Amino acid sequence: MHRYHLFHRLILTACSVVFIDLVATLHARTDRFGGLETVTAEITGRFRLETIRDRWWFVTPEGHAMIALGVNHLNEVRNAPEYPRTVLAQRFGNDWPRVHAEIEKQIRAWGFNSAGFFPPQEMRRTMPYIVTTKFISASFWSEPLEYVDVFGPAFASDAETKALAAATEMKSNPMAMAWAWSDSLSWDLKLTRQTRGTDFVSFLRGLEIGAPGRVRYIAFLRERHGGDIAKLNAAYGTSFSSFETVGGSTLELDRTAVLVDDREFLRLIARHYYQTISAVFRREHPHGLLMGERFQLRDHPDEVLEEAAKFIDVLGIQPGDHFFPPVAKLTRPDETWFDVAEFDRLHQITGKPIVVVDHQCGFFDQQTPKTGGWHQYPSAEEAAASYDRFLHDAFARPYLVGYFRCQYLSIYKDQIRRFKQGLLKPDGTPFAAYVSRLTQTNRNVIRQILEAP
Questions:
Q1: SS3 label, residue 117
Q2: Which of 13, 214, 338, 414 has the highest CB neighbour number within 10 Å of its CB?
Q3: For residue 59, what are the domain limits?
């Protein structure tokens, strides 16, 4: 045993990272942020990302490697119409510090170490979380889409205010892991046109003459076609009298030349969008982690990802096919499977570690017979097996640094006439067998990562 430990000390010193005996590691204590005390790195007093033993990790302010496992939307308990009928209300009433202390106790016992997106204020001092800011109401589920002129002064002013607020929060609270924007914009031109009848490029192209976004689009066209409107008309199959008149119903959006130009202008939109917001954040908090968009899986054109990668530290992806209305009925809902090929491709394009920012699969229960937003399994056992498969496949990839499960308390949503199913039933009692399986999965995932060669 002495020679075994001596050999490991030599290897670990060479790597400048401490990994002690595996059995001890699997039962190791964590620091107050959820970092493994047996997996150490430099102490910086802030969250950062680092590669250790050939995989990406979050590193906590105390210098310990961490894989983030969180639960989202914990703040919804406070406003849920179901709350007054829960066991939490019976025990604590509206004593929110005690309510949220109980919530934290529960999710920690289930193997989660962070409060994910949208935690209540009471939990932001005790658990790591993602600072989240809403910029534009034009996500895959928004109705209607509300794109804005990102080239205009109003957007720049909004970015200044919100980036400053996020940077201030992160600098004042070491539990703040990274900054993200909610929710993902509907980026993909074809999908958005197919499902919503508009898109980001068409919105800016349709602004009045003199609007900053329209001015930028016209300048783009001039540069793209060498200032020759005849050249544009030949490519587009149109008869516009000037660059200022390009647009309207005569523009054939599916024509190859038009689509190629629109995708390149979408690149410029993404570049300006990310640059405008991140510049303020970097000025105020140079070392803060920036996630940026929480991209909806398959609604992130390569042009947008390539531009985003210039400004972000970690890529946030939400699995699932949630376009509204649905593009097509899925024979195997993609959110129930970790799409290894696609996630590998996203990592290759961006070079960034990835967090699964919002995900779950529902199941039938007498208290929540119809669940929405995610695929519903016939039983809790099948849903738990799906969770187990998804997480093990996901964390087998060395670039995966976090997973955040959608929803804590099951809440009925009138607009979809279904339950947004959580880890608790509407009465506030856990789905016991399901939660037990999730707890084991969470523990096994950490073991899987630590046992990896």
A1: strand
A2: 338
A3: 1-66
Higher pLDDT, 327 or 136: 136
State the amino acid at position 211 in one-letter form.
A
Q: Token pair for residue 210?
A: 């003199």
Provide the H-helix boundaries in 93-136: 96-109
Report if residue 164 sits inside a domain.
Answer: no
What is the residue-wise DSSP string for 366-432? Answer: TTBSSB-SS-EESSHHHHHHHHHHHHHHHHTSTTEEEEEES-SB-EEETTTTEEE--SB-TTS-B-H
Q: How many residues does the chain have?
A: 453
Q: Is residue 239 part of a domain?
A: no
For residue 13, count other CB atoms closer than 10 A to its CB: 10
User: How many CB atoms are located within 10 Å of the residue 320 CB?
Assistant: 22
Residue 191: in which H helix or E strand, if any?
Answer: helix 189-196
The tens digit of pLDDT for each residue in 279-324 reads: 999 999 999 999 999 998 888 999 999 999 999 999 999 997 554 4
pTM for this one? 0.91
Q: Which of 66, 97, 453 is nearest to 289 (CA)?
A: 66
What is the rounded CA–CA span in Å between residue 239 and residue 169? 53
How many independent structural domains does the chain possess?
1
* DSSP designation for 98: H
- The fraction of the chain above a pLDDT of 90, given in percent, is 79
* Token pair listed for 167: 């940077």
Task: Indicate the residue type of 25.
Answer: T
CA 367 to chain centre: 29
* 12 half-sphere exposure, CB direction, 13 A CA radius: 15
E-strand spans in 34-120? 48-52, 55-59, 65-66, 68-71
Q: Which amino acid is present at 234?
A: A
Ramachandran region of residue 417, left (φ > 0), alpha (ψ -120 to 50) or beta?
left
Are 430 and 423 within 8 A, CB to CB? yes
Pairing of strands 418-420, 411-413: antiparallel
Residue with tokens 């589920």: 141
pLDDT above 70 (res 244): yes
Q: Could you tell me if 377 and 369 are in contact, meaning their C-beta atoms sit under 8 angstroms apart?
A: no
Contact 14, 8 (CB under 8 A): no
C-alpha span between 192 and 203 (Å, rounded): 12
Looking up tokens 């970790």 gives 338
Q: State phi, psi for 261 to the nearest 5 degrees.
A: -65, -40
256-284 vs 212-224: helix crossing angle, rounded to 10:
130
What is the DSSP secondary structure assignment for residue 114, as one 8-state letter?
B
Residue 334 within any structural domain of the chain: no
Beta bridge partners of 69: 403
Please compute Rg for the chain using Cα positions: 24
41: in domain:
yes
